[in-house]
Amino acid sequence: MNVPDDLKYTETHEWIRLEGGNARVGVTDHAQAELTDVVYVELPKVGAKVEAKAAAAVVESVKAAGDIYAPLTGTVVAVNEALENDPAFVNTDPYGEGWLFVIAPEAPDEVAQLKDAAAYRALTGE
Amino acid sequence: MVDFGGWHMPVQYGGILEEHHAVRNAVGVFDISHMGEVFVSGPEAKAWLNRLLTNNVDRLSLGECQYTFLLNEKGGVIDDLLVYQLDEGRYLLVVNASMIDEDVAWMRAHVCPGVTVENRSNEYAGLAVQGPRAVTLFDRFFEGKISRPARNEIKRVEMGCMTLFIARTGYTGEDGFELFFAAECAAAVWKAILEKGADLGIKPCGLGARDTLRLEMCYPLNGSDLSPTRTPLEAGLSFYVDLEKPEFIGRAKLAEQRQNGVHHRLVPFKMKGKTPPPRAHYTIFKNGQPIAETTSGTVSPTLGIGIGMAYIPSEFARINEEIEIDIRGRRFPATIEKKPLHKK
Prior knowledge:
The structure holds two protein chains of two kinds.
Chain A (H helix, E strand, L loop, with lengths): L7 E2 L4 E6 L2 E6 L1 H7 L2 E5 L6 E2 L4 E7 L3 E5 L4 E6 L9 H4 L8 E5 L11 H7 L3
Antiparallel strand pairs in A: 1-2, 2-3, 3-9, 4-6, 5-8, 6-7, 8-9
Chain B lengths: L1 E3 L2 E3 L6 H10 L2 E4 L4 E6 L3 H8 L12 E7 L5 E11 L2 E6 L4 H11 L5 E4 L4 E7 L3 H8 L12 E6 L2 E6 L8 E7 L3 H11 L6 E3 L1 H10 L34 H10 L3 E8 L11 E4 L2 E12 L4 E9 L8 E6 L2 E7 L8
Parallel strand pairs in B: 3-13
Antiparallel strand pairs in B: 1-2, 3-9, 4-7, 4-8, 5-6, 6-7, 9-12, 10-11, 11-12, 14-17, 14-19, 15-16, 15-18, 16-17, 18-19
Helix pairs in contact in B: 1-6
């Protein structure tokens, strides 16, 4: 399983990439492999407030719907509209074209509570 | 892996979509060892089965099978099953895994002299080989020495030390076979089928693809689309009920419904356009009012659109009727369709 060193991770299998002051969010390679065959992604609206550890999006595979939790508290400033037509990007490129949304964080110190790559690898048993 | 009727089973081996397409376009193999095998035999077996089941066992020729229902006294479905006539006075009933104990208890409670009921579910493994290339695989597997059973026919084949029952049946809408044989041979047969099917594009398939394939064909799943409070007539399956028979358990209710009509009917629906996949237990609206709940739902891999089934009040249970499905608080349009949703 691919776990890039430059990202931070949640216990619920989301990743964030810090870009300037903002945080880009997606699901991990491990999560997409567990979900498989993503057929629908429901994203928050731009401008929506999200709270750390609260459900912010829904990713649906053929078999089930899964909640995606916001890694940080803040405001959604961008969403990946390409997923409307190509939800399978979540499977094929979870850290790239499969990103979900971007948060402008309210409490940047929350980042310190996230896991680094080594801790996330340990969590998924790799 | 999930718990399914007490069995630990994979939802998927590779991925539901790839397994689904393999069955529609090539061939797939399912482990159906969880299904129950109940043997019914004796001089009174035929007459007894006709009093227990909705379909007419008299219509079966030797080696043939039929789809049928086991009902409670109120006409509700305990189980849906296939009954195969193996010999004169000897039948094999293939029942749902989660219902084995209840079915067998019901049969034992109603058994009569001249009938023996043997639950041999634990002795048998089962594999379903399904898809347009299943026949090629069949000929290869038996090296052309065994002729293929005809549709809905079952054959008994001796192979080495093993007795196989091979039926031309399935739950996918594709041509194919179901094999039942001694449980200790399961791993060897599974491996041999995958090996001989490798260049045909065979995939091992899990419960996920089994569900999407059967739902595209509108085959009901007991526990979801069938229940002890719904009759086969409400489920739109009166073809498998012979009301000409003078008596069978549940007949009175079914005769009454045939006379007066049913209040609800199980119908398939298709979502309009791009929507989240519908799933079981979503609320259905008509004219702004909740009228029903979905019993099954998924995204159809063949059609690329959300599909499902529901018991809809008869006044609305018409083809092309527009309904709305509530998905996480938002309502999405759908239309009631004709069975099956996947047509070849």
